[in-house]
Amino acid sequence: MAARRPPREMLQGRFVRLEPLVPAALPELADVLRRSEVFAGGWGGGPAGLPASREAFVAWFTRTWPFGGNVYAIRIASGPDEGRIVGTSTLTDFDLEAERAHLGWTAYAPEVWGTQVNPESKLLLLGLAFDSGFGRVKLQADERNTRSREAILRLGATYEGIARRDMLRADGSWRNTAVYSILIDEWPEVRRRLEQRLERFGGQPVRFGLPRVGGEGTAR
């Protein structure tokens, strides 16, 4: 089917729900993402881009984020921490004729790295993209960000190469970007792998701040 722009509506999962991000949620998002660990991997332009205050984060996010796309706040869906915001992600760069989209601008609170949050968020967003008729979804990360690059590969994405001198970091240096993609023909296997990963958690809800098993932090 021909690609169409995905609707901006809530995506409900077992462990997380993705809500269209509204300005009122930005201070709460700042409280979990304005962290040196989050910016260390290159998100937000890298360590030098870390805003000095909650207000500065809100102003920076409002000024720079791709609100022409589907920008989401990621919240815990059940359990004692239900409703707590734990990150953000975006589906954007929609090319309807070429059936291409970009899943990125993703960051999570360090407290939920290695939990159900990343695999279910990706499951929901990739499902939305492919159900909307897209044939290729791009994912990318700073070449230096080994954590995010490993997390993208664990999804089953294919590494395409390095886009050199692709983006200006906050410290004035130029970033090389590692580019990956998932095609519609690959989606059934990627979906199966994500669902298997989620099954390992049983029915336990996401708990904010409990010990985690690995690192899946940021990607853009």
TrEMBL record:
Gene Ontology MF term list: acyltransferase activity
Which residue numbers delimit the N-acetyltransferase domain? Answer: 16-185
EC numbers, comma separated: 2.3.-.-
Protein name, per record: GNAT family N-acetyltransferase
Q: Does the keyword Acyltransferase apply?
A: yes
| Tagged with keyword Acyltransferase | yes
Keywords per UniProt: Acyltransferase, Transferase
InterPro entries, A to Z: Acyl_CoA_acyltransferase, GNAT_dom
Top-tier EC class: transferase
SUPFAM superfamilies for this protein: Acyl-CoA N-acyltransferases (Nat)
> Pfam families in the record, alphabetically?
Acetyltransf_3
